[in-house]
Amino acid sequence: xxxxxxxxxxxxxxxxxxxxxxxxxxxxxxxxxxxxxxxxxxxxxxxxxxxxxxxxxxxxxxxxxxxxxxxxxxxxxxxxxxxxxxxxxxxxxxxxxxxxxxxxxxxxxxxxxxxxxxxxxxxxxxxxxxxxxxxxxxxxxxxxxxxxxxxxxxxxxxxxxxxxxxxxxxxxxxxxxxxxxxxxxxxxxxxxxxxxxxxxxxxxxxxxxxxxxxxxxxxxxxxxxxxxxxxxxxxxxxxxxxxxxxxxxxxxxxxxxxxx
Amino acid sequence: xxxxxxxxxxxxxxxxxxxxxxxxxxxxxxxxxxxxxxxxxxxxxxxxxxxxxxxxxxxxxxxxxxxxxxxxxxxxxxxxxxxxxxxxxxxxxxxxxxxxxxxxxxxxxxxxxxxxxxxxxxxxxxxxxxxxxxxxxxxxxxxxxxxxxxxxxxxxxxxxxxxxxxxxxxxxxxxxxxxxxxxxxxxxxxxxxxxxxxxxxxxxxxxxxxxxxxxxxxxxxxxxxxxxxxxxxxxxxxxxxxxxxxxxxxxxx
Lengths: 260, 253
Description:
The complex is a heterodimer.
Chain A: H1 3-28, H2 39-48, H3 50-84, H4 86-101, H5 104-114, H6 117-142, H7 146-154, H8 159-197, H9 206-215, H10 219-248
Helix pairs in contact in A: 2-10, 3-4, 3-6, 3-8, 3-9, 5-6, 5-8, 6-8, 8-9, 8-10, 9-10
Chain B: E1 7-17, E2 23-33, E3 37-41, H1 48-55, E4 63-67, E5 75-78, H2 90-100, H3 105-118, H4 134-146, E6 152-156, H5 164-181, E7 184-189, H6 192-198, E8 201-206, E9 211-217, H7 226-229, H8 232-248
Parallel strand pairs in B: 3-7, 3-8, 5-6, 6-7
Antiparallel strand pairs in B: 1-2, 1-4, 8-9
């Protein structure tokens, strides 16, 4: 069997085994659905509640994407600013770290007091997602080949040329690695904020559906919503990995196929 | 060589002390004439690379002066590593100096392809650095240094990391280029054999602090080729230069 077939086949086999065991356990011990629903029930709930869950998924996904885009712009922008001015870096970097290490669950309720709910949720997604972009891009910008910098100096490159033609392309691999982490974190930030907000209504996201289902002991729907969330997370990860691969495939070591 | 023999750059009593207190160069005097092929030869740590970087303006002397009797002209620099941008193909790498200088795109295109052809990479203009061998990367680096048509080409141990076959080939091609283009070359190396093969004049330097210990002329005629590399003359020059280098290093063999 080829490497590729194993890498795809084995996880699927594993999933099938776990689902089978899950189903057997539920049947054998006659477990009530409000304790542990069977995989079949989760699937039928997913279909039955499809419209509602889909609406909520779109809300959460939109927040995640907005948070991610803001994090990308903010993280890269701040990193570029830091690379241009040491004073700005020294003044702001510690606070970026503080924002990162303070658990978002603890910040969310505070943000909900000062900001309208959708904005607070977006702010949470942004706060968790922007730091890896900032940290990775900063690392990339500061580890440019010093001989290439000397070369640009020799040909009297302007500050702008140095940034645009050397530092940014050189930092691209690290920047993309940061963005890949930020995609997943943005989803986490959005979910945390939605749960902290806990508001019902047409505009509520998937995380709120989970909390709400929990209160109502609608465990099958809880599982269904959770399933949608993790599928979304995986999809975001793959989309960003593919984008990264497309950008780097011509030149970067990480995108090379090695034959042995 | 019937060219007017005028100095293109003169170093007078140049010294360099780093912030750490290391004295890299002290009282260095060096004159390089137009069209000349000069090698700076010395053990590692003798400040020859530092001297080259100061001539390029990438480092400032802490003592002495660097004079350009005919005015400072364009300089090409070849580093020890190829120093290519991995995200850009060969053509874009070679075009870099012209692009930074804001050159006209169409004119740059011709100059770039001429430079690439000159180093024998015409078929690889669209290749990325990672697709090239070590020797080909170095050729790209040389093409980039030549694309602005500099009067002075500075080379900092450019072939040190290459295997012998590639190094010999590049030595020959460099001499051919030098004879065709009539540029001035200052070549830094720690290889006695390489310096004798390439240069008209070898400047032997002492380590810590670096200064000129002796200058040795290599009057063998050009073009030099594999026959020269295996000749008794070549061996004789090598012995002479190696002995001088030994004395420069304080009698160590």
